[in-house]
Amino acid sequence: MERWKPLKIGELIARKPLIQGGMGVGISLSSLAGAVAKEGGIGVISAAQIGYKEPEWENNPLEANLKAIEKEIKKAREIANDGILGINIMVATRFYERYVKKAIESGIDLIISGAGLPTELPAYISGSKVKIAPIVSTLKSIQVISKYWERKYQKQPDLVVIEGPQAGGHLGFPVDELEKLEKRNSYEYDNEVRQILDFVKKLERKENIKIPVVVAGGIYDKKDMEHYIELGADGIQVGTRFVTTYECDASREFKEAYLNASKEEIELVKSPVGMPARGLKNLLVKEFNKPDKCYQCIKKCNPAEIPYCITKALIRAVKGDVEKGMVFCGANAYRANKMETVKEVMDSFFGKH
Ligand SMILES: Cc1cc2nc3c(=O)[nH]c(=O)nc-3n(C[C@H](O)[C@H](O)[C@H](O)COP(=O)(O)O)c2cc1C
Question: Going by CA atoms, what residue is nearest to atom 4 of ligand 1?
Fold first, then answer.
């Protein structure tokens, strides 16, 4: 008997309760998201500087990003026409509202937003059927967003993503806490997960609605998945494991950097945007990415004060310059030892359904 069930987010039903985490810059675009959606999971495109390949990019990053949102959603639909597609748009992003509206216009099913709490998201989606999910890392965050949405918009999240300390990219914890958690066993964070699940269960009863919860961060295989399903999660969100798939949108060199990485080479870095992040050890990033212009990514960044430009560092990496670029990854990236197809990854979690 399988312990997992399809993931229901209102009228959206994913045959397999797996959301592929949005990965910027350019790591999860239409090819990866489309393949995951086709296999019965939820494929997620990352909106972070999605337009970096467009001709407008250097002169008008906003226009390039808007154009690419439409293009990538369309291409992912062509791969998985009846699959479920989401987009990850970080709250900290400049022009957040414009990207949200463009994604809705382009027919996205689900918007997932972290790197801050998406306080005004219900206003931006009003009149559409799109589903919305905050990414939270603490009980406090889900309590705040749920109360705020209820009071201002009479709305609750359609889905909650709990992202733990083993995730890749920018993380929602202070560095000292991450370091503490890293030293202890990997299930240290379970207590917070339980409290969030408990809070959501009570909310469901109070509002008489169903709010599915998925857990992200360090889930690499079926055993990791079963651990969270046993805790009471409705599903999982997985990022790192999908990077070493043939369908992933990153360059071959980026994927090889994962295949070659040892545990010791994965470290916490202080991103110039003020949040801690996890990536591969790399001493050259700062030297080669001095900010000479601004690509308008994060609201709070001040180009005059930062040691290097995170947009430039991430674009270098996705294109294949893994020495001078920033290779984000989850704590489990060292477990990657072979290239796989998305179908193989999905089957390893769910069997051949
Ligand atoms: C290369 C990479 C880039 C990521 N970029 C983003 C991002 O732009 N926005 C975001 O909310 N999460 C981002 N994440 C987090 C993932 O969506 C996902 O939740 C997380 O990595 C799950 O943990 P796992 O990688 O251990 O499976 C990124 C993760 C990786 C590995």
Answer: 23
